[in-house]
């Protein structure tokens, strides 16, 4: 009998203690972001980052807003190399949308030589690489911004090469014949 009474007393004591616990976080004391406060000398709740903090994550969101770098031979060479690695499997080496993935049943991407993409600025290609478009996923975390600009410049060179005659490029015409 005493054992049962002790157990009931223990249960009642635990229930009484737990009754005072409110797990709701809606009534907690907190400071709203960027609100004024007398807690800190500068009077704001926003705190500066400690010295030595290393930023991580996607830090270059505004890269598309910056103008593209000047088109140089080195930039085009880099763009061709990166295009072959990241773009050619889907878009094909000439940008016709006939990459190896099409042979394996994936939908064909658009050719870079259609009117809509011929009229698109280089920033369009940079943005598509950064954010993805349609079934193409984002390459923003796989390709650095400088390489995305290089690829965009190379895509423009591919487009121009399709519409240029050998006679229009006299230095090259001598070596081809």
UniProtKB/TrEMBL annotation:
Q: Which GO terms describe its molecular function?
A: electron transfer activity; heme binding; metal ion binding
Superkingdom as given in the UniProt entry: Bacteria
Q: Does the keyword Signal apply?
A: yes
Q: Which PROSITE patterns match?
A: CYTC, PROKAR_LIPOPROTEIN
Residues annotated as signal peptide: 1-19
Kindly state which keywords UniProt assigns to this record, in alphabetical order.
Heme, Iron, Metal-binding, Signal
The keyword Hydrolase is assigned to this record: no
Q: Which parts of the sequence belong to the Cytochrome c domain?
A: 74-159
Q: Which Pfam families match?
A: Cytochrome_CBB3
Read off the PANTHER family from this record: LIPOPROTEIN-RELATED, QUINOL:CYTOCHROME C OXIDOREDUCTASE MEMBRANE PROTEIN
Quote the protein name from its UniProt record: Cytochrome C
